[in-house]
Design brief:
InterPro entries: Aromatic_Lyase, Fumarase/histidase_N, L-Aspartase-like. This is Aromatic amino acid lyase. It comes from Actinomadura soli. GO terms for molecular function: ammonia-lyase activity. The strands form three sheets. This protein has a two-stranded parallel sheet. It is mainly alpha-helical. It has two domains: 5-190, Fumarase/aspartase (N-terminal domain) (Fumarase C, Chain B, domain 1, Orthogonal Bundle); 197-301 and 328-483, Fumarase C, Chain A, domain 2 (Up-down Bundle), CATH 1.20.200. It has 18 helices and six strands. Helix 12 packs antiparallel against helix 13 and helix 15 (369-385) packs antiparallel against helix 16 (407-439).
């Protein structure tokens, strides 16, 4: 049983923990080490700013970096900065993404590089534990800092802006917190919203890719495919790790039943499944490693160096690694989803299933015909969303900030692509289970039999022509359960 408490220490946050903090009823606590690091950085930042210029603390920001803040104006400077930057636009992002953002920013500050007064740790933890949400619009960041989202959060902490309305429609003011003016830029200079969404997206992506292998094995069993493509000798001849993992999983899933194959060679949806799905597994795993590294990094500008008793002005705010990793994962996702759509096509063919066209109740029935249209509609969106966000660029703030990686847009595209993939994969699952039911066949045992039994307990057994939208939704909801190992 999982602990209902997540301890934030600034060094060991995982994407899985971000998912739990964002979607489950958990309590967030702060480790003493994290609080100590934040306190030491805050003291160092104050000492350094008293003796030399520090960006955002003693100067303006962006193109105004050369403008010194007069001491008599220092108390108002930070508040003006927050007000001027809380200017996002468009609809509000999903509550789970906001909670992921708050969790990541809490961990970043506990890493000890921001110099923000450590009391903000308790304030953010209280916000998470009370279920409060700042209003965060969709548009406002391009991968070089979620300034609008975090400025809005800061104004909520200060009591200037209400938290989002709760279930009763009323907006709350929440616990008050006095964010120091000198800490304003340090608080908002972060990619916490982008990284929070990226953590959710890669966790969901890896889950769907794991479920895909199970669904592909059900389709393989339904069309009486050949197991030769998954043989160890084949994989040893071209030993890509992801490909080997996919083939090994297929061997395990199909181990209980080895009927004679119906064809000397199957279509690519089966024969090349390890070679296409393997890269998606590797890309998703790499993306998760990159995101995990980022959410535990003191990627602050300026970076407060407690050991060196100084600050470093730097470019760690640029999340090119994250954006490029997610771009790569979406490209690989499109490739493997194209094979899922192709397998769905084989399940509609009598020559593969021995059943009526489209798995219909009669020769004239439409059966699952519409599932192909739905799957290819989902595939079209995954293809559109696979366009690399990194191909964009921007020149901002009077030319001082002359590059952007658009990791924010890459994270959003990954969220949307995974959602479309999930529905398309659900279509294949509906068809595979229906084919096996109509054939009167089932694996004799093992994890594939467990998966089929699980799906059969959820999906409607009727084969008459009827609306299939509820079937698709039920199959898509089932996929996370199929992703988990079965006995």
């Amino acid at each position: 049983m999982e602990d209902s408490r997540i301890v934030i220490d600034g060094t060991a946050l995982t994407c899985a923990q971000v998912v739990r903090a964002a979607r489950e009823d958990v309590t967030v606590a702060i480790a003493p080490d994290g609080a100590d690091r934040a306190r030491a950085a805050w003291r160092t930042a104050a000492e350094v700013a008293a003796s030399q210029p520090v960006y955002g603390r003693t100067t303006g920001v962006g193109a105004n970096r050369t403008v010194d803040v007069e001491w008599e104006d220092s108390d108002a400077h930070g508040l003006r900065l927050l007000r001027s930057h809380a200017a996002g636009a468009g609809p509000l992002v999903a509550p789970e993404i906001v909670r992921a953002m708050l969790t990541v920013r809490l961990n970043q500050i506990a890493a000890g590089g921001s110099g923000v007064e450590p009391g903000v740790l308790r304030a953010l933890a209280d916000v998470l534990n009370l279920g409060l949400l700042p209003p965060v619009p969709v548009y406002g960041a391009i991968g070089t800092g979620d300034l609008t989202a975090l400025a809005s959060t800061a104004l909520c902490l200060l009591g200037e802006r209400p938290w989002r309305p709760g279930p009763d429609g009323a907006a709350e003011r929440g616990p008050g917190y006095r964010l120091r003016s000198a800490d304003a830029l340090a608080f908002i200079s972060s990619n916490a919203a982008t990284l929070g969404e990226a953590a959710l997206a890669v966790a969901d992506l890896r889950e769907m890719l794991s479920a895909s292998t199970v669904v592909a094995a059900l389709s393989h069993f339904a069309v009486r495919g050949s197991g030769e493509p998954y043989a160890q000798a084949v994989q040893d001849a071209c030993p890509h790790p992801g490909q080997q993992d996919v083939a090994a999983a297929m061997r395990t899933l199909l181990a209980f039943d080895q009927p004679a194959p119906m064809r000397i060679q199957d279509p690519y949806g089966y024969r090349a499944f390890p070679q296409v799905h393997g890269p998606a597994l590797e890309a998703a795993a790499h993306a998760e490693r990159v995101v995990t590294r980022e959410i535990n990094a003191a990627a602050e500008n300026p970076l407060v160096d407690v050991t060196g008793r100084t600050v470093w002005h730097n470019g760690n705010f640029h999340t090119a690694y994250v954006g490029l990793a997610l771009d790569s994962a979406r490209a690989a996702l499109f490739q493997t989803m194209a094979l899922a759509a192709a397998r769905l096509g084989t399940l509609a063919e009598p020559s593969f299933t021995g059943l009526a066209p489209f798995l219909g109740a009669t020769e004239a029935s439409s059966g699952i015909m519409i599932l192909e249209y739905v799957a290819h509609s989902c595939l079209a969106d995954v293809r559109r969303l696979a366009t690399p966000a990194a191909l964009g660029s921007a020149v901002l703030s009077r030319g001082v900030e002359e590059h952007a990686g658009f990791s924010t847009q890459s994270a959003r595209a990954t969220t949307d692509a995974v959602a479309a993939y999930r529905l398309g994969l659900g279509c294949e699952l509906v068809a595979a289970v229906r084919a096996l039911r109509m054939q009167g066949r089932a694996p004799s045992g093992g994890p594939l039999r467990s998966a089929l039994d699980l799906a059969a307990g959820v999906l409607d057994p009727g084969v008459e022509d009827r609306p299939l939208d509820a079937d698709i939704a039920a199959a898509a909801d089932l996929l996370p359960r199929l992703a988990r190992p079965h006995p």
